[in-house]
Amino acid sequence: MNVSSKRLASLVAVAWVLCATPAFAEEAPDLGKLAQFIRWGGVAASVPILLAALFLLRLVENAGDRLSARFSNRRPTIQKVQTIVRFALYIVAFSLIIGLSIRLDPTALTVIGGALAFAVGFALRDLVASFIAGITIMFDRPFQVGDRVTYGGEYGDIIQIGLRSVRMNTLDHNIVTIPNNRVFTDVTASGNYGALEMQVPMDFYVGTDQDVEHAVELIREACLSSPYVFLARPISMLAIPVIREDYVAFHLKARPYVFDCQYEEAFKTDVHFRVLQAFREHGIGPPAVLHRQLAGNGPKRQH
After folding, report:
1. Please, which residues have CB within 8 angstroms of residue 261's CB and are 6 or more apart in sequence?
2. Please, are residues 147 and 159 in contact by the beta-carbon 8 Å criterion?
3. What is the extent of the structural domain holding 272?
4. Do residues 86 and 103 both lie within one domain?
5. For residue range 6-26, what is the model confidence (pLDDT) as tens digits?
6. Quick count: other Cβ atoms within 10 Å of Cβ 235?
7. Which DSSP letter does residue 209 get?
8. Sign, CA torsion 136/141/143/147
9. Residue 195's CB: how many other CB atoms inside 10 A?
10. What is the pTM of this model?
11. Helix axis angle, 125-140 relative to 106-123, nearest 10°?
């Protein structure tokens, strides 16, 4: 590019800036009006308040940690008080800084109120959805308190149904809080739906060369002899051949009922131990890798 071309490009750029400046100036916000709502003296006075709040927060954190370490049996209570004091400091410091830094005339109150209303409405969006879902759960009743269900990706006993959330005690004894709005997106499965007894499916595998009929009877006897079985319900059995990665087996599925759903894990453990012992005593083995010789003296393949 020669010198004349460079000068022409420079002149075009300057002309564009000069033409665009007035329009930009007309669209730019009036910062002077915004500055009228600010008390610069209050902003300067808010700095010590902010530093004092940070110091008090650090003091509360250190004091709570020391008290929790010294009185370990009171740690949950100390942590609750620590959380309440922390939030109180946040609210007090924020209120003082806003009161000192902003002129609270009717116009400012209108602007602040509109901004707060928008922020609160956006923040409470999920809360309102959970509240509506809670009412739906109360009337539709996909599950009840005491049911053992799969809900929100968790599995356990429902211990509380509230208007905002459902609390579940998992099999690992973890209290899980699930927002009610998950009921609109997740599939809920209830194992007992208000009853104490619950079906407990169990899977077993034996080789195709074993006595499958005898294995079915042994599994049935193990279920019937367990102290956790609910004898008023029949025990259905399913036996189908299946193909896994490198073996063919018979898949035996038992569907007994436990008399109380809280003993589900104990029932499974007891039946599996009984079946294992019975299979050993009667010589019933697990699936084994099968081989066959292909036509022509080719290599052996696994099936």
Report:
1. 148, 157, 191, 192, 196, 197, 198
2. no
3. 198-281
4. yes
5. 444 454 444 444 444 444 344
6. 17
7. T
8. positive
9. 15
10. 0.66
11. 40
